[in-house]
Amino acid sequence: METYDGAPEPGGAPALSDAPLPTAEEANPEHAAKDRPAEDQTVTEAAADEPVVEQPVKLLPVAELHLHIEGTLEPELIFALAERNGIELPYADLDELRARYEFTDLQSFLDLYYANMAVLQTEQDFADMTRAYLERAAAAGVRHAEIMMDPQAHVSRGIPLETCVNGVASVLANSLAEFGVSTLLIAAFLRDLSEESALGVLEQLLAMNAPIAGIGLDSAEVGNPPAKFERLFARAKEAGLHRIAHAGEEGPPSYIIDALELLDVERIDHGIRCMEDPDLVEHLVAERVPLTVCPLSNVRLRAVDTLAEHPLPAMLAAGLNVSVNSDDPAYFGGYVDDNFVQLQTVLGLSEFDRVRLASNSIRSSFADDERKTELLAELGYS
Ligand code: ES4
Ligand code: ZN
User: Nearest ligand to the C-alpha of residue 249?
Assistant: First the structure.
């Protein structure tokens, strides 16, 4: 297959975990068209009174590492599931629901996110939501996805654990054949609930042999530090599970340090506030700790004022192992491809940086080495 000129290690696969970042010569702007996973997008870039300039944006094969499946519930699907399940929504129509998508902070989003989950009642509902995400993700260039779900948010409203897990997992089991997307499932725990609650659900998941690859930690960050969940993460490690945690989204840099030291996490979700602590940045760079950054999410939840002020370019320049992810795409204005398009148009992110973000995502995933090698080869590393 066609690859970037001067691919990093001619004749051999790149090292998968500690691989150095590509040098400028290693990234060739001519991405092989035939290897693109889906149709390229066109960006429309123009101020109100200027002629429209169409710029082609190349879809790169990426791994999506930070995605809440419940955050993929699009307004149309919320209404369709409500109708199917005879649930009365507190919104008269789509416009009234969409009018609620003006968030002031993380909590203002979480309130709507949890409320809308009421429409998820049956295994079929969870399966339909998952299938809709995979279809859209495949069109965005996603070739591997590590998907979080929030079991406690369903169990707490009377939905059996088996219903939500089996509904999502039944679709993930065929995702590669059906959508060309390899997938892993991650059970995320709500940090505003007790550790006892999380431990109880984790034990149930283990007892039912749920097909989970790891655990995560999400929901309201400030006031719920990593130290609250040391036993949960120790139990997950003992059970052979991968471990990730949201940290440094709204919470301080010390939460990132604590997630690494106390919870022994392998990746940090968000992590943008690390930029306030130069010693921490140095450590994250030295250890190549993956940070799963979600630019559109950060803007919508007011973690940053505008995309133009997002720290991603500075994070790349610092040598951090960052990737681009969509978080809750139905709520934050777009999927992975939308994030890349906006990064290119608003921040002027170069093709070199976009390739680096894509290779970071693949290398930082929990996919097996064979899958990583395959996806890196699609990106031009052979
Ligand atoms: C989340 Cl953006 C974000 N942060 C923390 N927890 C979450 N759960 C779903 N989306
Ligand atoms: Zn998240």
Answer: 1
